[in-house]
Amino acid sequence: MSALHFFKPDLLWLLPLALLPLVSYGVKQFNFPGLEDWPKDFISDSLKWGVRALAVLALTALIVASAAPFTEGGTVTRVGDGAEIVIVLDRSGSMSEPLQNYDQSVDAKPMSKIEASRKVLLKFMEQRPADTFGVVAFNAAPVSVAPLSSDREIAKAAMLSAEANSSGFTALNRALAMGLDYFQNRPFTASRLILLVSDGDAVIEKEDREILKKSFKQTRAKLIWVYVHAGAEKNILSSVIAGDNEYITGAELQQIEMNQNVAMNKLFEELEIPYQAFEVNSEQGLQRAVTEIAQMTNKPTRYEYRLPRQDYAVYLYLLAMFLLGALFWLKQIEIKSWKA
Amino acid sequence: MAQQPLIHYHVRWRPSGHQPGASQGLVAGTGDQLRSVVPLRDNPDPRRLDLRASSRDPYENIWVRDFNLNSALKVIVLVDTSASMGYIGKVNRLHVAQQVASQLALSAYRSGDAFGLYAAGETINKECMLPPKANRGAWLWVNHHFPKIQPHGNSMDGLFDTVSYLPQKRCLVFLISDFRWPDGKLKSLLKKLNHHDVIPVMLQDPAEIDEQPQRGIAMLRDTETGNQKFVWMRPALQIQMAEMRAQHIKTVETASRLYGNKPFVVRGAFSSALLTEYFMRRSA
Q1: Measured between alpha carbons, how far is B213 from B281 in angstroms, rounded to an integer?
Q2: Rounded distance, CA B159 to CA A145, Å?
């Protein structure tokens, strides 16, 4: 148990006021011709002091409560098998394009890429209860939407609020830098992951590459690219995962896009950082990603959990209320005039 | 004041004064009780000629009847003015004492008796002192002087000093007090007054006896000692209190019976008819 602190210790100077009830009884007084033959009554005699004690206690409780006493909650070290994951979510214009739909039925609504990735990420978060999540969204500039914390609700709300918005330029490098910033000044207690959710429509300058490479090394973070692709695009994994989804060459434009995405994939590989890419546009893809990440993050997370400070004012106010209630009741049964 | 009927007190002893009054006295004079038959020479009043006795006398002396004088009493009122007498409950206690005293003064004058009054608290109150005289305006004097009395002091020791101011011959003494006295004080005062006919008039207030609040809390301050007491009135306490009050009256009764009389208890307001009734019971 840590020491007791006061939020407003100055108010404790009012404590001598609590002795005020000792000056008077606060009960109506009547003259009586002779008390020498008044029957001995233990209850009355003890009430004489009891009433004043009640009043003193009530005042003390009120004053101490208003000084807001609390104890620091302290921190506990918790061990989880999760990882620290920063989701870097692309919300550039291209993410609002409809996803290639595996469901070929007529009434299936087309789903935008960002919507799909959001859905997938939420599912992912649900399946990883021990992980710590932070969210960075970016298009032309990265926005730190949710800090890296074990509070799920913030991350979830951040995810849900992310909407695709075209702004002509995708600041991938800065977003990654911001995501890496999250890991700065934190003890390395868990596996660190940057989960880039993007359709890959971005380039990284040569100088930036060097900086990123350095930061990745410094923070010892791994990069996972969750690739969201529309049907028309080239599966970037064709170069990573052999065989299963060979792309058949189409239009010239698609070739360029393919080149770009494949280039991005290559680029990440060139960063000389632990890197993996997943194509996530189906349930199976998600499952695979989850198991892969689980394998990557088998290092147990030891994290400091800061307990909220314990506030005692509430109990004191409750006590004061109770005591004041008792005093009020005593005042109610006070004899107003000495007659039957 | 004169609205109440007069108090017809009656004593069972014979006052010895020469002042004509309403009680059968000890000395010879005009009265209604035959004392003796004496020669005319001894009581030269031919109106009281006893024809039968004179005609029966062979020596032919003339005899006259001699009567006991109907003499006046001396009515003395002793008032306790200690602090507890200033209690104002349902009635003003000192005001009740004033009513008793002034009604007695009026009644005493009407029956030709002398009336005197002494008040004492811790010490004797010399401002409020009336020597026993047949005094027509005594009741007005009482009404004039009583409101000036400030009840104070927490003992009644001054009453012992009043005894020496009282006439040496037997008087009818009314001792007006609430008798909230320490044990034995009443007995020793009555002992000092025991050649007088002392009637303790005990003043009580319903607010201190049976008309107390049923329940609730309050602070009580003793008017004499100034002690404060926190009380929580409740039925259980009321029963105890009723016993205590009965005990108090019993104590006063025991002490005064030892010296001849029952106390006359005034509960709340004073009624002179009740005091007359008290005397009627006493004579019966």
Answers
A1: 34
A2: 97
The alpha carbon of residue B97 is apart from the nearest alpha carbon of chain A, in Å, by 15
CA-CA distance, A62 to A49, in Å (whole number)?
Answer: 20
Give the Cα separation of A154 and A176 in Å (integer): 20
- Give every CB contact of residue B37 below 8 A, 6+ residues apart in sequence: B50, B53, B63, B64, B65, B66
Helix, strand, coil in percent for chain B, rounding step 5: 35, 30, 35
Residues 45-74 of A with CB under 8 A from B: 45, 47-48, 51
Distance from CA of B93 to the nearest CA of A (A): 10
Cross-strand bridge partners of residue A278: A226
B214 touches chain A (CB under 8 A): yes
Q: pTM score > 0.80 for this model?
A: no
Report, at the CATH architecture level, how domain B74-283 is classified.
3-Layer(aba) Sandwich (3.40)
| Cβ-based contacts of A37 with chain B (< 8 Å) | 244, 247-248
Q: Could B240 and A333 be called an inter-chain contact, meaning their C-beta atoms sit closer than 8 Å?
A: no
Minimum mean pLDDT range among A116-120, A176-180, B225-229: A116-120
Distance from CA of A71 to the nearest CA of B (A): 41
Interchain pair B219, A333: CB under 8 A: no
Residue A338 is assigned to a structural domain of this protein: no
Instruction: Specify the domain boundaries for CATH 3.40.50.410 within chain B.
Output: 74-283
Rounded Cα–Cα distance for residues A43 and A170 (Å): 82
Name the residue with tokens 């620091």. A72
Instruction: Please check whether residues A185 and A36 belong to one and the same domain.
Output: no
Closest CB from B85, B217, B231 relative to A330: B217
In A177-250, the DSSP E strands lie at 191-198, 221-227
Confirm or reject contact between A43 and chain B (CB < 8 A): yes
**Minimum-distance CB partner of B217 among A35, A45, A333:** A333
Range of the domain at A68: 4-73+309-332
- Alpha-carbon span B75 to B133, nearest angstrom: 9
Q: What is the pLDDT of residue A100?
A: 58
B220 contact A CB<8A: yes
Instruction: Provide the number of structural domains found in chain A.
Output: 2
- Give the pLDDT confidence of A126-157 residue by residue, as tens digits: 877 777 888 888 888 888 888 887 777 888 88
Give pLDDT tens digits for A289-301: 777 777 776 666 6
Tokens of A182: 């999250």
**Which helix or strand (DSSP H or E) is residue A296 part of?**
helix A283-296
Residue to substitute from B178, B202, B220, interface A, most A β-carbons within 10 A: B220
- Say yes or no: A69 and A160 in one domain: no
- Residues A81, A173 share a domain: yes
Which amino acid type is present at position B134?
A
CA distance B28 to chain A (A): 49
Verify whether the Cβ–Cβ distance A33 to B227 is below 8 Å. no
B51: pLDDT strictly greater than 80: yes
